[in-house]
């Protein structure tokens, strides 16, 4: 898109983007944005311990996820709610995790925004450790490559990995890119360069030309893209996926340039290290990904002020409704504290489980086990 | 006696000459300009002259056979690490595997522990069963975040939907003549992590049976081998030579039965303890029971307690640092579960609380020796 959010040469667009799909993208971007603002406030009200918002990066997540295939394998950092949403996570799934209730696939074990979505949307469980997901994607891609060699009838798949420009300073990033290049793994490394690693600006994160310049050093084809333009993000990711599957597989690096409009997390106050004027200029229709897409839709007569207000109100209602419902759900069964440490419960864990049950049975007034599924019986 | 004074105490306790440390196979130096070099002969397995079908295997051969059998049995298994393919492994444990299974199953990696460990874990989370070789566990420090935060925790954190069937293996612990950064024991590090299983083979049978069990186990398993044992030969029973031989985790092996003292030990210290036990028998007529832990997580507390009920005395021997170690754990568990059966305070012999020195004399003082074990046992028994 040009700076006034018009696509000059529409022939460059893939043929497979019907208007309904673009509207769905917009709806998803809005949903991420509204969910973020509501949950940020909910954290301030003490309803959850932590939250991370992704304002400014909605196009990067939704656009890239839209260009990947449903069966591709994805590893994320922690600011990729848009990826989960675009791939089929529902508000109920988000709220179940954020309130750690019994419907959370992670069984209430993880801090908020650490979604576990391998079964539902093909996204590995989110980890707090920075950068570990990057070599995992290389490994997943290696497994996919082996799968393709064994069974050529299967649709070839890629792995995709999201990380910030700050995480790209971790050793894991370099190890992962080098391994992917030497093993020629079909993996797309997607860097969300949002300008900040908590308070550290990109200018202090690296001296070179961003993350993209590192790709050529590893022998990896690389593209740097405007991350606030969802069409550019979509087309770049689509081209990357095609290339990643050529010649038996190869890695591709994408660097999406955007701006972290929000604070790093609920534990951060970014006014301490950047000016409100700086932030404000990223909220304009030239820079904000949602405003940009909205303008495009309005040019195309696909959207209007009233539709926008109506949709926002509806999403806000839905989010609040799902949050309330999720808060009312029971917490995961007490047995979840011991299970899944190993594939089978160990003797020691079993002994501890029985002992805990004995103590809880003996002193029921000391424990609030009724909020858990099955109460004491769930242990 | 103060624990911190132990190295000096050792010196005093061993005025008799140290048993000469055998010319040890040196550590394969990892230098930017040189390929790793393995000294010491590569021993081949040979027939023992008896009719029972028992053969002599080096630990290296046993590990090699275990890997070959598992690669053969399951196409999801693959090996990766530095120098494992073309060079046959820095310690030749993977000898011949590249030729037999090809470069898709036996993969040489760049020198990037966090990269290839992460790759292996990512592949495991996607359904393959990688065997990740560390040239030594000293280098695994580069990727311990991946081992602990990714491999050990993902099953739990994903809510049970992402198992990580992976085996980490390589030499660990006391080596010879290689200084502080190449000669240390990480058993306690990995042994403390929920989600990991940790095994410490001593003999050739241990090595084969435990490694095969590790590869088949659906959980992440850390196999802590020992460089000084690779070239050592052990009898391997006919049953252990078969491809279906595995050793269950969490079951210690009583290597030598006795009634007067229990020595609980692991890895290379098992052999040292057995020699000390024989000497104690010869010199004092004492019967020492030697328990080879085989796995430290899960730990076979039952066997230890049963033995203490019989002997009423416990000595733990290990080569790790003294603080917060395997022996600390066993002594603590003994306090909890077997205190009433002890006739004397339980004791331990460990590595010294110093970075391993290079100078031979200092190095010898830093780790358990057969003489030291013998002397401590004699003291514990008031001989």
Automatic annotation (TrEMBL), chain A:
The keyword Transcription does not apply. It catalyses: N(6)-[(R)-lipoyl]-L-lysyl-[protein] + 3-methyl-2-oxobutanoate + H(+) = N(6)-[(R)-S(8)-2-methylpropanoyldihydrolipoyl]-L-lysyl-[protein] + CO2. Keywords: Metal-binding, Mitochondrion, Oxidoreductase, Potassium, Thiamine pyrophosphate, Transit peptide. Residues 27-333 form the Dehydrogenase E1 component domain. GO terms for cellular component: mitochondrial matrix. It is found in: Mitochondrion matrix. Its cofactor is thiamine diphosphate. It comes from the Eukaryota. The branched-chain alpha-keto dehydrogenase complex catalyzes the overall conversion of alpha-keto acids to acyl-CoA and CO(2). It contains multiple copies of three enzymatic components: branched-chain alpha-keto acid decarboxylase (E1), lipoamide acyltransferase (E2) and lipoamide dehydrogenase (E3). Belongs to the BCKDHA family. One of its GO terms (molecular function) is metal ion binding. Its EC number is 1.2.4.4. One of its GO terms (biological process) is branched-chain amino acid catabolic process. Transmembrane segments: none annotated. This is 2-oxoisovalerate dehydrogenase subunit alpha.
Automatic annotation (TrEMBL), chain B:
One of its GO terms (cellular component) is mitochondrion. CDD domains: TPP_PYR_E1-PDHc-beta_like (cd07036). Residues 57-232 form the Transketolase-like pyrimidine-binding domain. The pyruvate dehydrogenase complex catalyzes the overall conversion of pyruvate to acetyl-CoA and CO2. One of its GO terms (molecular function) is pyruvate dehydrogenase (acetyl-transferring) activity. It catalyses: N(6)-[(R)-lipoyl]-L-lysyl-[protein] + pyruvate + H(+) = N(6)-[(R)-S(8)-acetyldihydrolipoyl]-L-lysyl-[protein] + CO2. It is found in: Mitochondrion. The keyword Metal-binding applies. Its EC number is 1.2.4.1. Gene3D superfamilies: 3.40.50.920, 3.40.50.970. Its cofactor is thiamine diphosphate. It is an enzyme of class 1 (oxidoreductase). SUPFAM superfamilies: Thiamin diphosphate-binding fold (THDP-binding) (SSF52518), TK C-terminal domain-like (SSF52922). This is Pyruvate dehydrogenase E1 component subunit beta. It holds the Pfam family Transketolase_C. GO terms for biological process: pyruvate decarboxylation to acetyl-CoA. Keywords: Metal-binding, Mitochondrion, Oxidoreductase, Potassium, Pyruvate, Thiamine pyrophosphate, Transit peptide.
